Amino acid sequence: MSYEVTATRRRPQAFEALAGQEFVAETLKNAIQSQKIAHAYLFSGPRGCGKTSTARILAKALNCANGPTATPCGKCQQCLEITKGASTDVIEIDGASNTSVNDVRQIKDEVLFPPQSSRYKIYIIDEVHMLSTSAFNALLKTIEEPPPYCIFIFATTELQKVPATIKSRCQQFNFRLVPIERVKQLLAEAAAEINIKADDEALYWVARESTGSVRDAYTLFDQVAAFSGDHITYDKIRDKLGLVGVDRLNAIFEDAAQNKTQEALLKIDEFLQNGVSIEQFIVNCTDYLRSLLLIRAGITKEALLGQSRDRYSQVVLQAWNPIQLERALSILLQLYRDIRYSLSPRYELELAFSRLSWLSQYVSPSEVKKAIDEAKSLLMQGSKAPAMANGSQQAHAQPQNPSPRQFISMPQSEPVQAPQPQVSAAPASQPSPAQASASANPYLNRVITDLPRDTQPAPSSAPVRNIFAPPPASPAAESAPAQAAPSNHATAPLSAQTNNPPQFFNTQSVPPDMGTTTDDFAPPDPTPPDAAPSVSQPSFSYGGAVPPQQTAAATPNQSNDSSDFRSLAIKELSIRDPMIGSSLLQTGEWIKSGSSVTTQVSSTFLKMQLDSHAQNISAFLSELLGEKVRFEVVLKQIVAVAPIEQNAPVQVKILCDTFKGQIIGHSKKTEQEIANEAAQRNAEKAATENENATDEEDEE
Ligand SMILES: [Zn+2]
């Protein structure tokens, strides 16, 4: 007996035998039973799922000696001839090789002759979408009004290429891919027929490889049966088919999930050596990752997963969260698209697995957003705390600071009490830029403190406030006329410690009795009448760019005058000291209220800078306005600068550093303490003002 391939041997010969196309079979049977036979049928669907077989069964059903019948006998002459493909009245045409209009004209001519020995003359045209447009047009008329004995059955794998004019003249049937379980069942039957033992898993893989095409499955089965002997096992077919089973995928993905790049790459090499094609491997990997994603989504249905849930690696499932699994799957899907244009698909594959090995550290944008939100809410909590009212950093800083005078007279032998001993200890007389920028950031500063060359650790009591030092005074500032007044820059520290870095000259070194400067350090409390400029009652305002609510309060005329005054003042002061000028340019509107000119700045640093020159500016403005005024700078926002406490989350510190934001510490003070501090501050301020008044009188 000659060898017959399984696909031919097991070609369905009756509607009942059509696997996976029950709907089509049922409809056709009913149509035949009720004698409602169309003159044109169009079968569409993937290859190897039974279109041609169905066409032949239909032909038999119509031409069977017992017919038309839904159950052709398969034994009469017509049935036998059709089965063999030898019937003169059932003409099978391959549309792919008979595409021209002449081929169709030949059909048209033949149609005119009635069937020789059968009831119907049946044309089965396969791959009908391959016909040319003119061929289709030539066919239209024939299909629409064929002779009553003539029936057309078209089959196509690409329905979208069939013209709508043809489709609308046909009864359409859509064939579907056969489910893997059904294919596996068919294969088991086929194996049993030829007395071959076949393991379930092996048949599963053959069915899976066929992707729902029964013909493909049979063809592959024949191939597998040929080299497997009388027992088809997974191990035998695995390498031959280039399959990468779930166990091997588990192994390689466990390596990737555990960041064992080397092992993963070695395994890939092994697979490729064994003849696994790269495409095949990627396909298997994507199947695998999809199954893992489904498992993580709570799906346990074996038909969807392809394997029992238990066969998938728990290591990978635990190492990667769904977001990382999605990412892994998308890397491999992209890889599949990329390799067809790649210089070296193998490199692409290795690169992909190298990336997968780092996937555990992959942070998705949504996770980043969540982290930022958390950090933000921490920062917001800080700003909401009652102690964080306007300028409350002073409340923190002042009580713990040593008095400026103490500080200045401090002998060098006690550097621990100095605000920045680590800087003093550094041999360089000028700070490096890194140090300078570090000094503006408590967090960075602490990092610098930890550097090995810093022999002396920063005392924990060192007030962070002191770190905010102004940049080295420029020569212009030193020579400015206003600088003749007692100044922090000119006098004390230089005489005391000449080789100290300029950081030492910070705002804290200003003695409290020197003019009005101290007032600037004790910032306006929300309540005191004169310290906090009353926005609602400006007697005069000097137009600035920033605060809208204040410009609204001023009439346009005033605003014009005031901005003239502001720009004039800035211009003049810039000539005397460019640094002051540039700082002043960043101030908001200038508001004159009583004997003070107030403006707002948005950064603490700017406020510190301007505060250190407030005396000079006040003097200049007084001269310009012809009356004694005091220049005051307030922070625009409710922003507090306080030492970042040790227990502040490191993320907050990093965020503050990275985004150069305002640093808002956590306050642990009780409301009572805050109230006490405010009272104390008010008392100090009142005392200082009295003192100032006395000084001014003395000067006059
Ligand atoms: Zn028959």
UniProtKB/TrEMBL annotation:
Enzyme Commission number, as recorded: 2.7.7.7
Gene Ontology BP terms: DNA-templated DNA replication
The organism's place on the tree of life at top rank: Bacteria
GO molecular function: ATP binding; DNA binding; DNA-directed DNA polymerase activity; metal ion binding
Family per record: Belongs to the DnaX/STICHEL family.
Cited PANTHER family: PROTEIN STICHEL-LIKE 2 (PTHR11669:SF0), REPLICATION FACTOR C / DNA POLYMERASE III GAMMA-TAU SUBUNIT (PTHR11669)
Protein name: DNA polymerase III subunit gamma/tau
Organism the protein comes from: Treponema ruminis
Protein's gene: dnaX
